[in-house]
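User: Predict the structure for this protein chain, please.
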Amino acid sequence: MKYVGIQQQISSNNRKSLVLLMAFPLLVLAATFAVVFFFNFTEDGPPTFQEALGVYLPTIPVVLAVIGIWFLIAYFANAAMINSAAGSHTLSRKENMREYNLMENLCMSIGMKMPMLRIIESPALNAFASGINEKTYTVTLTRGIIEKLNDEELEGVIAHELMHIRNKDVRLLIISIIFVGIFSFIVQLAFRSVLYGGMSGGNRKKDDNKGMIVILVIAAVAYVLSILFKFALSRKREYLADSGAAQMTRNPMALASALRKISNNHHVDAVKSEDIQQMFIENAPEDSAMGFLGGLGGLFATHPPIEKRIQLLEQF
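Assistant: Here is the predicted structure, written as structure tokens:
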């Protein structure tokens, strides 16, 4: 496998991430236009593009306002929700000087303010970074990863998570999760409306039900596409965090060794949220609801294959 330099990786990943990030609001607007278009069918057939556009344009400010309110609430409440969903608690500095010293030394080496340090009481080997600003930036480790990795390996893992924070990956991931959540909510709402609407009689109810079916189909397509965008964004950032960690510690082999150990026992049973699982340093497709897809699972994978990540680190 050909190695790509760190600066080239940073530039390439940032460009691709920007494109993927822009895809989310564009997908919302495209789905809204599709709904407007199908709701303006008449006995004479579908509306012209100009007719549909005339109805669509006034809806844009309303759609953006609703999305904006939803986004702001979810964005600023995410830290508390993540800690609660992960079942983590603050790691005592007095009793865990080793972990604090490793992270503090890494932060000092790059001039970065030290994030909070939390722990999940699980024997699995995993870790993740979260937060939206310096007050909420957090590195969370499992009990298993603390106990099973040596100092150099744990330093590599912490450096990987610090790179996610430094590269603003945690913000990008939160944004993608929020947009996917919007489509998921619309799909659930439309499905329930179709389900209960189908049990009601009357022509008016049947017409309303047909409209909800249209919304359900469009929202479902947008939901699947938003998941693909989210997963692609996540995979791009993992390679970059690995490279940044190798550069930060000047010890890529330590992180490669840590990833080997993590690959054998990374699934945290206590964490049920797939959004949290996506944030872990390793999250294989078979651990998620997408595992049944087999060969297509790569499209729905949140992380690149860990074997490829190790190969790149060994060639660093």
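The chain has twelve helices and four strands.
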